[in-house]
Structure formats: structure tokens, C-alpha cells
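Design job #97: recover the sequence.
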């Protein structure tokens, strides 16, 4: 052993020396590249990438590049550095940081007036949102990137590549919404561009995505073929992350084919590689596949451990699709254990998450945007063809074609003006409809309905038939009034007050009828003809209940006063003797499950929309009440306008005439 010791020391010193030399050489190479970039100020993305690509995954070097470039006002290099940092953060699932870097990159691209860098930055923001399954912003950014790319008359290879990225991501969004045929169409469009540019990375990505769509459709052999093609391209470019993706996908196919002996080694290899890369997205996917394999082998205990690892990682990094899949598998395992209540909780968690992704609004939104960008593309092609034909026609029939061109231009302008006006009107109507839908959702809160029915159930269990029938009648009447009110933009003050009485009666059950609720109305107000937005007072009463009185032991009071201080407004006051906003906020922070007052924000938006027809806008004031310098409640003062604009009055009189 003693004779070997000097050799070991020598080998160790040699390794350290080689590492130091290599590190020094890399640092020198980076410093030379940095000096060249800031001296020559290249503006094209391809030029920057050819110089800086070897260092793009080194966050320290990219931060140094950003600091030097920002100081020298080299906006293009600053943009490149920020996008590189965004990708580094995305690859370790730090999506919020990734989005911030890419958004800063877009600002620098705008400062540099570089369309190429702007398109790249928009696409990168979209990719980060897509990885989190946040559909609308992902689609918005990719669509903006596409529109910008299509506006370029002579697109460079970088712009063409960006179009392929956008189409690929839109395909992935269709995948999240289970629109598999539409997804394949987008992937094939992207694949064609990547083939023309001989981009092996793009080919690897698109073949994998086509395989993923075929797998979702149940075509396992077609999926397997495309995954193997993707793996070949990833091996050709030596992409470790690409191999992780392909191994996970191949393992999933073998699982579905019940080839468990083939599935296990490839899934474990994917997990090892994902752990080395520290990419939480694919670590979660690998644990999910491994847990599924062990479930199929009836090794439930080990399966549960791996699935919980997948669930914890996915929950920590907001990977909603992975959370849903892991929850479904854990539900199945708990069924095997006969833990039916736990199984049901996991199943509900999975369904709730899937419903946030797969909604009719998201599907409609995606379809609308997809149609829009397809039309933009076709219009650009049509314009290009029209210009080419025009040049030929001008040589043959100049005067006639000038007249034709002028007529066509007028038609296009008229069409555009019509579309703009129509779109504006549709957006306004959509906004109003969205507010009304949000309002209905906030009133028909599932927790409120469940708790109310639960309270009535207790009366039935305790054989308090009269109370059960009384409150069941109240509850059904309240639900009917809410549904009727949701169809109308406004209601009479009388109906609104009746609905609030019903609401407070139902809520009071859960407070053991301890709340003293009073309504005082100024006799000079005609409540039948005074109009206000329907269900506008409920969020304020709910706030008083849950933030003011729920933490108080006794002597709980809410007063609703309606008065008229001028001919232009009615004045509504909601006064509670609760614990006050400061104390309520402290309690809220201590709670694990917090109730967000989204109803107040929706109500403000509805009041703003309602006020557009009146000479004055609404006002809302929330103030804390004190007695002997101690908080003794909260007072909400809402002024609702009653004097309509003259033009609206004229319209009403014209209709009646």
C-alpha cells in the first residue's frame, strides 16, 4: 500500500492539472468571444449563436455576458444572454424565473428593433407556460410570434425555424386539450420546415410529438416507430435530454403493450439520466412511469412510493398534467388497499386539475386563435400572389388594372373596418358574458351548496323535520333566485334584498343562527323600480361573514342600510361588528386553506360595466370601525348610480313610443 501512495498522489495531481488547464482554456475562449461580440456588435441571431453557443448552458458565463453587454448597450447580446438563462431555468423546472428572463429578453429585442430576437423571445415565453399547462398565455405568445414571423417579407432561416417552434408548441397545446388530429397537423407542418432546414434537433422533437399523438389515439405501433426515429436523431446530435424523453416514451409504450421486462430497464435508465440532468419535469415523468410499471406488477408498496415522489415533484413545480396522472394512479393503488375514501380524494384531485386544463373556454379559445393565425398566413399568401399577378396585369392592361386594384383595396378596407368594429363589439359582449358567468360561479360556490345541504341533512338526522323543511324551502328558493338573476344583467332593489335575506338565512344555519341580520330601507326609495346589478351585494355580505364574524365568539351582527342621499345615487351600507380587517388578515395568513375574495373583484368589474349607462360611476369605500381605539367591525359603503345618460333615456322613450 505504501508503494502505491505516491502514484495515487501523482495521478490526482495530474487530473487536477488537466481540469485546471481545460477550465482556463474555456475561460480564455469565452473572454475572446465576449470581446469579439462587444467589439463587432453582431446583430443577427445566427452570428451570435455561432459565437456563444458553446457557453449557453453555463449560467455564470451568460450572467457575465449580460452584465457586460447591458453596460455597453449591446441589446442583441443582452437578449441572447437572457434567453439562454431562461432556457437554463426552464430545463431545471424554474418556470417563473424562466419567464422573467425571457420577458426581459423581449424588452431588449424591442430596444434593438430585432424581429428575429423578438420572435425567439415570444416563443420561449410560450414554451415555459406550455410546460406548466397554462394554455391561454402559452397560445397568446406563440400566436404573436407566428404573426410577427409571417409579417417578414424575406424570412431568414432563423425566422423559419421560429415558425416551426411556434407550430410545434401549438401542436402540444392541442395535445393538452386532447385534440390529437389537429396536433398531428401542426407537428407535420413544423416537421416540413425542419426537414427543409436539415435541423436534426427539430426533427427529433417533431417525430417524438407525432409519436405522442399517435399513442394518445391508441396507435401504439405508429407511436413506437416515431419514437425510435426521434431517438436516432437525438443520438445523432448527442442530446441527453432528448434520450431521457424518448426512453420515457418508449417505456410507456412497452407498459401499454404489457412488455414489462422490456419496459423496466429503459424506464430506470430514463430516471437515472433525468436525475443527472436535474430536470424536474422529466424526473417526475420517470417516477410516474416507474410507479405505473410496479403497479402493473402488483408491487403496490414500491409503486406508491415512486408515485408519491412524482406527485411531490409535480406539485412543487406546478406540473399539472403530471399531478393529475400521479393522482389517478394513487387512486387505483388505494382502491387495491380498499382505502376508498383516500382513493376518491386522489381521483377528485386528478379530475379537478384536468378540468382546469380541458375546459370549453380553453378549447374555444384555442380554436379561435388557431383559425385566426391560419387566416393571417393564408391572407399573406394571397397578398403575395396578388402582388405577383398585379405586376403581370399592369404590363397588359394598366388602366383597367388600376381601377380593379382600387376597387379591391376599397373592399379590403371596408372588410377590415367591418371586422374591426365587429371584433370590438364581440369582445365587449364576451367581456360582459364572462363577468356574468364568473358572477354565477361565485354565487353557486360548490362549498356553499355542499355546506348548506349538509346543514339541512343534520336537521333531518336529528329528526327536526320542521327546520329541515323550512330551510330546504329557503335553500331551493335561493337557488332559483340565483339562477333567474344570472339571466338578467340587473334586477330590482326589492328582489335583491329578498335574495340577500334568503342567503343570510341559509348561511346563518352554519353559524347556529347566532347572527342578527337586519335590513333598513329608506321609505322614500321605491324598491320595485330602482334597478341595481343582480346579486351585487352577496360578495360583501359573504366577506362580512367569513372575514369579520366567523372568528368571533358571540354577539354577531350585520346591518344592511339603504338610503338616498341625492337623486343621482342610492347609498348601501353593510356594517358588521366583527374583528376588523387587520385581525382577519392575521388569521388568514395562519390558515393553510385561504378563502380568496374573488367575488369582490368580479363585483367591481360588473359595477363598472353597469355604470357605463349612467351619468356617474359607482363608488366603493371600505373602512374599519373603532371603539376606544380597538377594532369593533367593518363598514362598507356602496353608492350605486340611478341617473341614466340622456342618450339612454332617449332610446328608452323611442322604444316605448
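Job complete. Output follows.
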Amino acid at each position: 500500500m505504501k508503494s502505491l501512495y505516491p502514484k495515487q498522489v501523482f495521478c490526482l495531481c495530474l487530473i487536477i492539472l488537466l481540469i485546471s488547464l481545460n477550465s482556463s482554456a474555456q475561460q480564455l475562449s469565452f473572454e475572446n468571444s465576449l470581446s469579439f461580440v462587444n467589439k463587432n456588435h453582431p446583430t443577427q441571431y445566427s452570428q451570435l449563436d455561432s459565437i456563444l453557443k458553446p457557453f449557453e448552458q453555463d449560467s455564470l458565463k451568460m450572467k457575465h455576458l449580460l452584465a457586460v453587454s447591458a453596460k455597453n448597450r449591446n441589446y442583441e447580446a443582452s437578449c441572447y444572454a437572457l434567453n439562454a438563462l431562461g432556457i437554463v431555468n426552464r430545463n431545471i423546472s424554474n418556470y417563473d424565473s424562466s419567464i422573467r428572463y425571457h420577458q426581459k429578453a423581449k424588452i431588449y429585442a424591442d430596444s434593438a428593433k430585432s424581429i428575429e430576437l423578438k420572435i425567439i423571445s415570444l416563443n420561449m415565453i410560450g414554451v415555459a407556460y406550455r410546460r406548466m399547462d397554462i394554455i391561454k398565455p402559452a397560445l397568446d405568445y406563440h400566436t404573436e410570434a407566428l404573426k410577427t414571423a409571417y409579417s417578414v417579407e424575406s424570412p431568414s432561416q432563423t425566422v423559419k425555424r421560429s415558425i416551426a417552434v411556434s407550430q410545434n408548441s401549438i401542436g402540444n397545446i392541442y395535445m393538452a386539450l386532447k385534440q390529437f388530429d389537429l396536433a398531428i397537423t401542426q407537428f407535420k407542418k413544423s416537421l416540413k420546415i425542419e426537414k427543409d432546414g436539415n435541423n436534426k434537433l427539430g426533427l427529433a422533437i417533431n417525430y417524438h410529438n407525432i409519436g405522442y399523438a399517435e399513442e394518445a389515439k391508441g396507435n401504439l405501433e405508429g407511436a413506437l416507430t416515431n419514437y425510435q426515429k426521434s431517438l436516432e436523431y437525438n443520438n445523432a446530435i448527442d442530446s441527453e435530454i432528448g434520450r431521457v424523453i424518448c426512453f420515457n416514451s418508449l417505456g410507456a409504450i412497452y407498459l401499454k403493450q404489457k412488455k414489462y421486462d422490456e419496459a423496466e430497464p429503459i424506464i430506470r435508465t430514463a430516471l437515472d439520466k433525468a436525475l443527472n440532468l436535474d430536470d424536474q419535469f422529466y424526473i417526475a415523468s420517470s417516477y410516474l412511469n416507474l410507479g405505473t410499471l410496479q403497479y402493473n406488477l402488483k408491487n403496490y408498496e414500491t409503486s406508491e412510493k415512486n408515485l408519491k415522489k412524482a406527485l411531490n415533484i409535480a406539485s412543487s413545480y406546478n406540473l399539472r398534467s403530471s399531478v393529475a396522472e400521479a393522482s389517478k394512479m394513487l387512486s387505483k393503488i388505494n382502491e387495491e388497499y380498499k382505502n376508498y375514501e383516500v382513493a376518491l380524494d386522489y381521483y377528485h384531485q386528478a379530475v379537478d386539475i384536468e378540468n382546469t386544463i380541458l375546459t370549453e373556454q380553453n378549447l374555444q379559445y384555442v380554436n379561435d386563435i388557431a383559425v385566426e393565425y391560419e387566416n393571417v398566413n393564408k391572407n399573406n399568401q394571397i397578398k403575395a400572389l396578388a402582388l405577383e399577378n398585379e405586376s403581370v396585369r399592369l404590363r397588359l392592361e394598366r388602366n383597367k388594372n388600376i381601377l380593379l386594384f382600387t376597387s379591391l383595396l376599397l373592399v379590403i378596407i371596408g372588410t377590415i373596418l367591418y371586422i374591426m368594429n365587429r371584433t370590438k363589439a364581440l369582445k365587449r359582449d364576451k367581456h360582459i358574458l364572462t363577468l356574468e358567468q364568473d358572477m354565477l360561479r361565485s354565487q353557486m360556490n360548490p362549498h356553499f351548496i355542499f355546506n348548506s345541504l349538509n346543514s339541512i341533512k343534520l336537521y333531518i338526522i336529528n329528526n327536526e323535520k320542521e327546520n329541515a323543511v323550512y330551510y330546504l324551502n329557503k335553500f331551493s328558493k335561493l337557488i332559483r333566485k340565483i339562477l333567474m338573476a344570472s339571466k338578467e344583467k340587473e334586477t330590482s332593489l326589492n328582489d335583491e334584498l329578498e335574495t340577500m335575506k334568503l342567503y343570510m338565512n341559509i348561511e346563518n344555519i352554519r353559524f347556529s343562527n347566532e347572527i342578527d341580520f337586519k335590513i333598513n330601507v329608506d321609505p322614500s326609495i321605491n324598491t320595485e323600480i330602482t334597478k341595481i346589478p343582480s346579486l351585487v351585494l352577496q360578495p360583501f355580505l359573504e366577506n362580512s361573514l367569513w372575514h369579520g364574524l366567523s372568528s368571533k365568539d358571540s354577539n354577531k351582527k350585520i346591518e344592511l342600510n339603504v338610503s338616498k342621499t341625492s337623486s343621482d345615487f342610492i347609498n348601501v351600507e353593510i356594517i358588521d361588528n366583527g374583528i376588523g380587517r387587520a385581525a382577519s388578515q392575521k388569521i388568514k395568513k395562519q390558515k393553510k386553506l385561504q378563502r380568496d375574495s374573488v367575488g369582490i373583484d368580479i363585483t367591481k368589474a360588473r359595477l363598472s360595466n353597469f355604470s357605463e349607462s349612467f351619468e356617474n360611476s359607482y363608488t366603493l369605500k371600505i373602512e374599519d370601525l373603532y371603539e376606544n381605539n380597538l377594532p369593533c367591525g367593518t363598514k362598507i359603503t356602496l353608492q350605486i348610480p340611478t341617473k341614466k345618460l340622456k342618450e339612454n333615456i332617449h332610446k328608452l322613450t323611442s322604444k316605448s313610443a
